[in-house]
Structure formats: structure tokens, C-alpha cells
Design a protein that fits this description.
The protein is of the alpha/beta class. The chain contains 30 helices and 24 strands.
């Protein structure tokens, strides 16, 4: 009985041990293993090695995955064979980085047909049959490089490109993106490309030849950091490392890689192109585990330059250190797992031995306790790994915040720069107001005062000449602003460049003759046709000629030549002088804005002439170069393309504005008054002046009061109210005023029928053609730019008043013919139509007067009087009488009404008064008129 109990107890214990073994085995069953094949086009170069290192880092977290990598050594035939070999070996997933798209495509499609997922890494195949793609956007890499190059060069300069291996998709797409983005900056030109094979030394010979042939190159874009390092070595050999900026691609960590080269200043920037090893492996694992994944995985990029390279270097070093810690932790984890597996085997053996002995139960209990301790240690280690991962996430967030801060600072810098340029432009506009107050009185004294002495006239001429020079400096400042913000457009027409330059040279004949300087004009051909914008090139050539005349001594020689290049595709204009030349110190800065150099021997200039000439030449897609020998003279050469793109051509002829650095601008000549014009003059004519500047306001009123009655307003709102109340004969208005601008005043005056007839003269410091068009479109009759000639303003006012008088006569004739048949095509015509309707509706009332008509139109008595006076040149009562008599002519033709009936029908107080008025107007009595127009009865 006891033995049976023991046997039953042992049976129960053995059953419990068997259950424990089964449950332990089920819990510790190994995870399924995956086999991934990797067909790499090449392992040469640090970027490919970084890709493989990234895969290995990711796989360190997944011991259940086995990776087999085969290197094709940049041979498409070998890569096809290796892909098929991996398929025969039975891999679960295939990662392919193609060397060439076309040859590798059939092998990839075979894998898809066999049900093996394929992840394309870095490069694509020629087919859309693949499972997922991981890689950078080479087109965007090129565009990012172009945009950053434009910011380095301030949107103007010459660039060259160092290409990767010909036929590579990365080379083609990076070049395409660079060219596309560069097209948005017309002042940046590409002078050529050099082909390489992604290594340092292969590009050096061809790059030396290119840089010697194009000394104007100021930036190089290399398709990877290795070739960029070779380019930096070539620039250092040629002594141009400070003149040429270099941009590379990859941005890898390590010695002589992108981060290190930017940090050392050998490269100005490197565009990050992530290898993508980790991302490819994560995508592959998601596919194998049947988890959600993205088919297209485009890796991001950023520009690495001096502003962020140290931060990125520190982050990279820190991540590398943390990766080493992770590897050590994983090694310890593997060791513990091995220990755990070994002890588990011992435990299984002991448990098997317990089948024969009860005493082994104690050993099993101790082994179970040891197992729990190991699990606790593993849990602690897992917690440490989780903490490391959390730290990595925090560091990534810190990097993102730093990048956002850099972008915010860059945006603020752009805003500050725009504010400075806007202030600079507004300040230049404001200079025109005091110039008006200087140049206006001087012009009037010189043209109207006959009792000036020769000394006074000479001094006033000196004031006028220097005021005009100051005005030219203001114009150059405005041109500088237009070039900076890209608002100066080229409108080229086809013409003869020889004739164009000849006319400019003729303008310098007199000042050159006064100093006995000989001007020699040389043109082998009488006609050299080309597309050019006269408004731009005349400023270039006038500045060059003025500069040459300034630095050429008396009895010197200036030679101007115009010729075509040997290939006939370009036209060259050179200006050579026999002056003192340009010093070595000044040569590097001669085209910088506001640089004046050593001008001790001559009158100091503004430092803008040559800089403006170069900026305008580049805008015209040309090139301005110079050569000089101290003591012998200087030669400036403008090289222009003979053909220009369609976008820069204009079908309308452009009238160039003559411009010179030291020659004063000519004010417009006054037109002779028209003897047939009979404008209203004297104190009966009211002129309203609206000008916010008190001095200009007073100056205008003072010049107009001898000829007209003048009222003034100091802002747009009050001026508009006065114009509506007074109904002046003419308005002189400034454009730029606080509150209501001059353009808004004009628009509201022309929109109101009470004031629509009033001529408006706009005065402004805004002299751009588009601004003048804006003023005319608003309704201005004359648009004068400050400073203006007072006599010209006075004649303009008289001409406008004369035109208004002729228009009044026209309206009177229309009114006499048939008012109802005349369509209301403008506000004045509509006013006459409404006025006629109001008057004729009340003609039968003998008491009809001015107040009744004004009430019917909804305006004041004074407004009605001045409006009719301005439009028709007559009074309100005369108009009412005229409409009654015109209506009488219609009624007299109808013989059913007697003359007495007609008189009372039209509101005349008596038939005799009607007959007297009718005969005074038409020189015939009503009865004679009826007899003359009646139809004889049968």
C-alpha cells in the first residue's frame, strides 16, 4: 500500500516534470531566422562602406537575421550572375544596389516572378517591378546645391560643375537638378563641366585646364566630396583657393570626408546624401514580418556649412560613441544568452535525471531559481538598452530644434536685409523733393531773369550742374536697388551696335575737346547687328567713357572700338585710355559697390559707376573685364552675346534715356505755346495744390499765384474734400503722401461726376516707367517727376486749361444738336444728360431756379455752378434759358399750339418776354420761325 502511494506520488511528480519540460521548451523556442541577400554594385569608396556599416548596425539589433553580401566590382554582368546565385541559395529577401539600371533589370524581375521581395537601394532599375525603393533624391540634391550656390554668390557669378561617372543615374540627375534650379538666377552662368569617376585625382588635369580657360569662375559644384577635395587641391595649386567657393555632396563623417573638409574650410559646403543602409534594412524587416511599409522611401538632405558643421560633427561623434556602447552591451547580452542557454541545457539534464531520483527535485528547484536570476539580469540589461534608445531619440529632437533655429535666424536675416534695402530706396526717393526746391528756382532764375551778372549766372549754372549730378547719383542708387532685388528687366530690340555706340561717343566730343583729349572711334564694319537693350547699355558705355575721361590727362587719347568676335557670336566694345592705370591694390575691388580706391590725383567719385556698369552688363548676359598697366592706362572690354533668349526680347522699340556719370541730365525743353489755344487765365481760374511737403507746397503756390487763383492742401484727404467743395479748374497733386496717396486722390476725382472734368497734374519722385504708367492709368493728365522745371509746369497747366476750353466748346455744340442722342460715354457726358433731364422735367415752372436744379442733382448750389461753368463755360440760368428756347423750337413746329401756349408751356412769364428771348437767341421771331418751318396745307 505504501509502495503504491510512493509509486503514485512519483508518477504524479514525473508527470509534473514532463509538463514543466514541455512548457519550458515551448517558451524558449528560437525565433524564426531570415536570410537576406545583398547585391552591392561596389564596395569601393567611403560612401559605399558607410552603407554596409549602416546595415550591420541595424542587424546588430536583429540576431535572427543573416545577411549575405556579394560585391559586383562595378560590373553589370557580374551583378546579374550574383543576383541569380542568391536566388538559387534560397534567400528570403533581396536588396539590390544596381550599377547600371538596364542590365540589372531582368535579374530583378526574375526575383519578383519567383515571389522573392526586392528592395532597391540608392539606384533604380529600368522597370517598376520591385517591392520597395530606399535612396536619396539626386534631382533635389542638385537643386539644393544650386540654391545654396546662388546664396553664396549673391545671385550673380560664374560656376563650373565636376560630374561623376558618365552614364550614372546619380550623375545625370544631380546635373539636371543643378541646371534646373540655376535657371531661376539669370545672373549666374555655367561655364562648363569636368567628368570624373567619384575619386580625388582623376578630375585634376581637366579641372586645371578649365580654370585656366575661365578665370572668372567663382564657384565649383562637385558631385561628391572626394572630387570636391581634388578640386580644392587644384585651386590651392593655382593660388585661387580664396576666390573660388566649392560645394560637395555626401557629408560623411571621418578623416578627409565631407564633415571634416567643411570644418577645415577646404569646402564651403557639402550636401548631405545619406547612404541609407539602416533604412533599407528596416524596410526589409517590415516586409519579411508582413508589417506595414512604404514602397517609396526618399531620404532627406540638408546643407552642411560653417554654421552647422561643428554641431553635426559633435552629434556624429557622440552617436558613434553610443553605438560602441550599444555593441558592448549587445556583446554582454549575447554572452549572458549563451550562459543562459548552457545552464538551461544543464537544467534539462538534471530534470531528466530527476525521472530516476526524487532527490534531483532540489537540484531542479535551485536551477529554476538560477533561471529567475538570469531573467532579472536580462530585464535590467533590456532596461539599459531602452534608456540608450530614449537618449538617442532625445538627441535627434535636439538636432531638429537646432535646425529649426537656424532656419528662423536665416529668415530673420532675409527680413532685415529687405528692410534695409527698402529704407535705402525710400531715402533715395525722398532726396528728389529737396532737389526740386533747389533746381526749380535755379532753372527759373536762369531762364527768366535778364538782369543777372555774368558771375551770378556762372554761379547759378554751377549750382544747376551739381544739382543734376546729385540727381544722377540718386538715379544710380535706384538702379543699384533694382539690380539687387531683380526688378530691372532686359527689353532688347535688334539694332546696329556701331551706330548706338557712335552716338554715345559724340556726346563726349565737347568735354573731351575742352581738355584737348582725343577721342578715337574705330569700327572695322559699318554695321554690326545684335539684340540689345539701349536703356541698359547706354548707362554702361556712358559710365565707362566718363570714367576714362576723368582719369585721362590733358592731351591724352581715348580709343573706343566696336567689333565682333572671330566666331561671330559675340560683340565687343572696348574703351582704352592713356591715364595713370589701376594699382594692384585697387584691381581686386574695382567692381565693388561704393569702392573709391586711391583718387588723390583726381576728383573723387561715388564709387558706383564701374559697379553699376558691371551689374548691368551681367544683367544683359554679358561680361565686363579690364586690363591695366600703371602709368600707361587702362582698357575696359564689354562682351555681349549677339543673340538673347526670347524672354529678354521686346517687339516694341525702346527709347534709351541718355545717362552719364559726370555729364548733367538735360531737362525737357519747353514747348512753344499754341497761339490758337485760349486757356482760362487770370484770377478767374482756380488751381488746387495738394502737397504734404510744406516747402514744396509753398513753392508751387508762389509760382502759380501770379497767373491763377490758388488754394492749397497738405494731405490727400483734405485735398479731396476741397476739390469736391470748390470744384477747381485744375489740380496739382503729389503722389507719395501720408494717408490718401496721390493715385487714390486722382482715382476718386475721376470717379466722381462732380470732379471728373478737372485736369490733374501728378508730381512725384518715382520715375520708373511702370510707375508712370500706373499714374496715367489712374487718370492723371500729366505726370512730372521731381525735380521739375517750374516753367515747364506752368506751360503744362496752361495747355491743360486750353484743352479744357476746347472740350467745353465741344460739349456746347453737342448740347445744341441733340442731347438725348448722345450716349453717356464718360462722367461729364453723364452729368450733362442728368442735368438736362432735371431741367426739362421742370421747364413748365416759371420759378425754376439754381436751387431747384441743384436739389434735383443732390449737390450744392456752388458745386453746380462751378461744374456747369467748367464743362460748358456758362451759368446755370443761361443753361435753363437755353433748354427752354431749344424746346420751344420743337413745339413751334407743331401748329396745334399757339405761340402763347408754347410760352406758358415752357415757363415764360409772358408771351412778349418769350418772343424777345427767342429773337435774341435765334435772330428771328417765333411767328417767323413757325412760318418758315410749317408745312403748307393742301
Amino acid at each position: 500500500m505504501y509502495t503504491q502511494r510512493i509509486s503514485g506520488w512519483l508518477s504524479g511528480l514525473l508527470l509534473a516534470v514532463a509538463v514543466l519540460l514541455l512548457s519550458s521548451c515551448s517558451r524558449q523556442a528560437p525565433a524564426p531566422r531570415y536570410r537576406i541577400g545583398f547585391s552591392q554594385c561596389s564596395t569601393n569608396g567611403p560612401w559605399r562602406q558607410a552603407m554596409l556599416a549602416g546595415m550591420e548596425r541595424e542587424l546588430s539589433f536583429h540576431p535572427e537575421v543573416a545577411l549575405r553580401m556579394l560585391n559586383a566590382n562595378d560590373n553589370s554582368q557580374v551583378q546579374q550572375q550574383q543576383i541569380r546565385q542568391l536566388l538559387r541559395e534560397g534567400v528570403d529577401l533581396l536588396i539590390v544596389s544596381p550599377y547600371e539600371a538596364g542590365p540589372v533589370t531582368p535579374a530583378v524581375e526574375e526575383a519578383i516572378a519567383q515571389g522573392v521581395p526586392v528592395v532597391l537601394l540608392d539606384r533604380r532599375t529600368a522597370s517598376a517591378r520591385y517591392t520597395a525603393y530606399v535612396g536619396g533624391n539626386n534631382l533635389e540634391i542638385g537643386k539644393t546645391a544650386a540654391r545654396y550656390a546662388a546664396s553664396l554668390l549673391r545671385q550673380r557669378g560664374y560656376v563650373a560643375e565636376v560630374l561623376g561617372t558618365p552614364g550614372s543615374s546619380a550623375t545625370a540627375e544631380r546635373h539636371q537638378g543643378f541646371v534646373q534650379a540655376l535657371a531661376a538666377y539669370p545672373s549666374i552662368r555655367s561655364v562648363g563641366q569636368v567628368e570624373g569617376d567619384w575619386t580625388v585625382n582623376t578630375v585634376k588635369p581637366a579641372l586645371r585646364t578649365l580654370l585656366k580657360a575661365h578665370p572668372e569662375v567663382s564657384l565649383l559644384f562637385a558631385h561628391n566630396d572626394g572630387m570636391a577635395r581634388g578640386a580644392a587641391e587644384v585651386c590651392r595649386e593655382l593660388g585661387r583657393e580664396r576666390q573660388i567657393k566649392i560645394i560637395g555632396v555626401d557629408g560623411l563623417a571621418g578623416a578627409n570626408e565631407g564633415l571634416d573638409l567643411v570644418r577645415r574650410g577646404l569646402l564651403d559646403a557639402s550636401i548631405l546624401y545619406a547612404p541609407g543602409g539602416e533604412e533599407a534594412m528596416r524596410t526589409a524587416l517590415s516586409i519579411l514580418r508582413r508589417q506595414p511599409y512604404r514602397r517609396e522611401n526618399t531620404l532627406g538632405t540638408l546643407v552642411i556649412d560653417s554654421t552647422n558643421v561643428r554641431t553635426l560633427q559633435q552629434q556624429t561623434d557622440k552617436m558613434a560613441s553610443q553605438q560602441q556602447d550599444i555593441l558592448r552591451q549587445q556583446g554582454l547580452l549575447q554572452s549572458l544568452r549563451a550562459t543562459y542557454a548552457s545552464q538551461r541545457t544543464v537544467l534539462y539534464g538534471l530534470l531528466a535525471t530527476l525521472l530516476g531520483a526524487i532527490l534531483l527535485g532540489g537540484v531542479a528547484w535551485r536551477s529554476a531559481r538560477k533561471n529567475r536570476q538570469i531573467n532579472q539580469q536580462l530585464a535590467r540589461q533590456n532596461a539599459e538598452i531602452d534608456a540608450i534608445n530614449h537618449q538617442l531619440v532625445s538627441q535627434n529632437e535636439e538636432i531638429r530644434q537646432q535646425r529649426n533655429q537656424l532656419e528662423t535666424l536665416a529668415a530673420q536675416a532675409r527680413t532685415d536685409t529687405e528692410a534695409k534695402l527698402r529704407f535705402f530706396t525710400n531715402f533715395s526717393h525722398e532726396l528728389r523733393t529737396p532737389l526740386t526746391l533747389i533746381l526749380g528756382p535755379v532753372e527759373e532764375l536762369l531762364t527768366s531773369s535778364s538782369d543777372l551778372t555774368s558771375t551770378q549766372r556762372h554761379d547759378l549754372g554751377l549750382v544747376r550742374r551739381n544739382t543734376q549730378r546729385l540727381l544722377q547719383l540718386v538715379n544710380q542708387l535706384l538702379d543699384f536697388r533694382k539690380i539687387e532685388v531683380g526688378k530691372m528687366a532686359v527689353r532688347a530690340t535688334e539694332g546696329n551696335l556701331v551706330t548706338f555706340v557712335r552716338e554715345i561717343v559724340d556726346a563726349f566730343e565737347r568735354p573731351a575737346r575742352q581738355r584737348s583729349v582725343e577721342l578715337r572711334f574705330q569700327a572695322p564694319e559699318a554695321e554690326l547687328k545684335g539684340w540689345f537693350d539701349g536703356n541698359i547699355l547706354d548707362k554702361v558705355f556712358f559710365n565707362l567713357l566718363s570714367n576714362a575721361l576723368k582719369f585721362t590727362p590733358d592731351q591724352g587719347v581715348i580709343t573706343i572700338s566696336v567689333e565682333a568676335t572671330p566666331d561671330g557670336r559675340h560683340l565687343c566694345v572696348s574703351v582704352a585710355d592713356t591715364g595713370r592705370g589701376i594699382s594692384d591694390q585697387d584691381r581686386a575691388h574695382i567692381f565693388e559697390w561704393f569702392y573709391q580706391g586711391d583718387q588723390s590725383a583726381v576728383a573723387k567719385g561715388s564709387g558706383m559707376g564701374l559697379a553699376l556698369a558691371q551689374g548691368l552688363t551681367r544683367l544683359h548676359q554679358g561680361q565686363l573685364t579690364f586690363s591695366s598697366q600703371p602709368g600707361q592706362g587702362s582698357t575696359f572690354v564689354v562682351t555681349l552675346p549677339r543673340e538673347l533668349p526670347e524672354a529678354l526680347r521686346s517687339t516694341e522699340p525702346v527709347s534709351p534715356t541718355v545717362f552719364a556719370l559726370d555729364e548733367p541730365e538735360s531737362l525737357p525743353e519747353l514747348a512753344s505755346p499754341d497761339p490758337t489755344t485760349s486757356p482760362e487765365s487770370g484770377l478767374d481760374t482756380l488751381v488746387l495744390v495738394i502737397e504734404d511737403n510744406p516747402e514744396v507746397n509753398s513753392f508751387l503756390a508762389r509760382k502759380l499765384r501770379p497767373h491763377f487763383r490758388v488754394q492749397t492742401a497738405t494731405d490727400g484727404a483734405s485735398g479731396l474734400r476741397m476739390a469736391t467743395d470748390l470744384i477747381p479748374d485744375l489740380v496739382v497733386c503729389d503722389v507719395m503722401m501720408p494717408g490718401l496717396s496721390g493715385l487714390e486722390v486722382v482715382a476718386q476725382l475721376k470717379a466722381d461726376w462732380r470732379t471728373s472734368h478737372i485736369p490733374v497734374v501728378l508730381l512725384t519722385a518715382r520715375n520708373a516707367p511702370e510707375q508712370q504708367v500706373e499714374g496715367v492709368q489712374a487718370g492723371a493728365d500729366v505726370y512730372l517727376t521731381k525735380p521739375f522745371n517750374p516753367a515747364f509746369l506752368l506751360e503744362s497747366v496752361r495747355t491743360l486749361l486750353g484743352n479744357r476750353a476746347r472740350q467745353r466748346e465741344h460739349f456746347r455744340r453737342e448740347l445744341l444738336v441733340d442731347m438725348e442722342a448722345t450716349p453717356a460715354s464718360d462722367p461729364d457726358q453723364k452729368f450733362l444728360t442728368d442735368l438736362t433731364a432735371v431741367v426739362e422735367a421742370q421747364l413748365a415752372q416759371p420759378t425754376l431756379n439754381v436751387e431747384d436744379v441743384a436739389r434735383g442733382l443732390g449737390i450744392s448750389r456752388m458745386q453746380l455752378y462751378r461744374k456747369i461753368k467748367a464743362v460748358l463755360g456758362t451759368g446755370v440760368s443761361d443753361f435753363i434759358q437755353g433748354r427752354r428756347l431749344a424746346k420751344a423750337r420743337e413745339l413751334l413746329v407743331d401748329d396745334t399750339l399757339s405761340i402763347t401756349d408754347v410760352a406758358y408751356e415752357l415757363g415764360f412769364s409772358s408771351p412778349s418776354y418769350f418772343s424777345t428771348s427767342f429773337k435774341a437767341r435765334y435772330q428771328i421771331s417765333p411767328s417767323e420761325f413757325r412760318a418758315l418751318h410749317s408745312t403748307p396745307h393742301a
